[in-house]
Amino acid sequence: MGLLDFLHKKKNTAETAKNRLQIIIAQERSSRGGPDYLPLMQRELLEVIKKYVNIDADAVKVDLVRDGANDVLDISVALPDEK
Prior knowledge:
The protein is an alpha+beta fold.
């Protein structure tokens, strides 16, 4: 039974690898359709906000959301708590 268990584990590993690859492909396909200016816009927004508030690079998120026939630019800025 030990040999059969070993073969069964490979199937689970292969299935896990397949699922992970499908997730990566889906992410690549979704990012391909997005405009090229979003990363640049995110960096520029971060630079402007840093002039007034000390934040890190992960604090600014810029996404393009499709809402039916419209594209909506979603900008999220996590500001630090004032002390």
